[in-house]
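job 3f2a | input accepted
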Amino acid sequence: MTPALDPEVLTATRRSLHRVAEHVLAATRKRATGDLTLRPGAGGFRIPPLPDGSALAVVGTDLVVTGPAGERRHPLRTVGQAAAFAGVPAGFPWTKHPPATPFEPEAELVVDPGAAAALAAWFALGQQALTALADQLAAEEPTEPQIFPEHFDLGLTAGPVNYGFSPGDESIAAPYVYIGPHELPPPDGAYWNAPFGAYRSWHEVADAPQALDFLRVGHAALRR
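job 3f2a | predicted structure (224 res):
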């Protein structure tokens, strides 16, 4: 069952967290390793530990910095303050493709505790479902489930198909689970309800097994 949240508050929180994901966490990982993907974490999302052993995470409404001195926390107020607290440059270091969110380091972030917790729970549900899916599709060499900062969605690729969990976007406001074939046009039928393939909102998915069933139905349909 999805929580009762004001859609505008949920959207504002998602947009703010997306900015932090791109301009603080992913930016830090890319500068240190060349990689930029994130992972779900307890209460939010995180980067894997960096070569120096440090790590950044968003937990609820806080930025959490882990290093040799232990763990430090700071409430999310602006991208600039978050980066300064972590001791890293703010702003995604792009070359060919700009980030999906504007770089406004002094703009106020709106991170509602209830909305942040709900989005963290959605990523956790997605991680559970995608891990199970990857096990079932092992022969198709699935990638590791990871959060792609440009879309701020959790996904993997198995064969010529993307499977994922979005916290919502400008086209579909509510969080949703999706399947998107790379090349094959989606078959006709009620299952395929989006230009990219198919999705179900979190209002239609009660738990990870139900989300997994939705993805398995799409996978089976594409194989036919």
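job 3f2a | The first helix runs from residue 7 to 33.
job 3f2a | closed
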